[in-house]
Design goal:
Strand content: 15-25%
Number of strands: 5
Shape: rod-shaped
Oligomer: single chain
Radius of gyration: 65 Å
CATH topology of the largest domain: Nuclear Transport Factor 2, Chain: A
CATH class of the largest domain: Alpha Beta
């Protein structure tokens, strides 16, 4: 339909159609008046011949015009194909990171008593001669290596226990001052107030005494009762 409309709208085709259309009546008049003595049948035949020639010429010119417009009609289709949008590929999705599990830290055990409480209980028990309470502050490992009767006998030599002012980290090492009774000395010949260092450790979520040593200038030496 678009091709036919384009052909009819061509100025060249419109001029040719006008010429052919105007030429037909002129030729008919000329044929019918050229011979005044011709019969009516002869004139009709000549008129029909002119109309056939006119129709054939019109169709031929129409076919030529349509053929000339065929490349123009095909051109937009080619352009449309060339300008068709090219599908674009979506960018690859970024890999999803797998969350890593963070191990839960082991909670710090909640101890029943502090080091100071254990130290105070032990020292007070030695002062009032409650040796069983003092013995209960020992760790099982210390109780197994130091028999109870020998340990109680060693403690009877002391009349008092105090906690002196001390520096350092009390969570690791603790110092006690034990006072010998009159007439008693340690293995080094010392009498009166003697300092001992107690080592602390955790047992069954509670602080316990794990070792006792004599404090000397040369170092700290383990005692027989602890």
């Amino acid at each position: 339909m678009n091709l036919l409309l384009n052909t009819l709208g061509d100025p060249i085709w419109q001029v040719l159609a006008l010429v052919i259309t105007l030429a037909a009546p002129v030729l008919i008049v000329a044929v019918r008046t050229r011979d005044a003595h011709a019969s009516e049948q002869r004139k009709r035949q000549d008129t029909l011949t002119i109309l056939r020639v006119w129709l054939a010429t019109f169709l031929l010119m129409s076919g030529v015009a349509v053929a000339l417009h065929l490349p123009d009609a095909a051109q937009p289709r080619t352009s449309s194909t060339a300008l068709s949008p090219v599908p674009t590929m979506a960018p690859p999705s970024s890999p999803t990171s797998t969350p890593t599990s963070i191990p839960t830290p082991t909670p710090t055990p909640r101890l029943a008593r502090s080091i100071t409480q254990v130290l105070t209980t032990f020292c007070d028990a030695i002062t009032i001669q409650d040796y069983q309470t003092a013995w209960n502050q020992y760790a099982r490992s210390l109780q197994q290596t130091h028999p109870q009767p020998e340990t109680f006998a060693a403690w009877r030599r002391y009349t008092r226990c105090t906690i002196p002012d001390q520096s350092g980290d009390p969570s690791a090492l603790t110092i006690l001052t034990l006072t010998f009774a009159t007439g008693y000395t340690d293995r080094f010949g010392r009498s009166g107030d003697v300092d001992y260092r107690l080592t602390m450790g955790v047992e069954d979520t509670a602080w316990k005494i794990t070792g006792v040593c004599d404090i000397l200038s040369e170092g700290c030496f383990a005692v027989s009762w602890g």
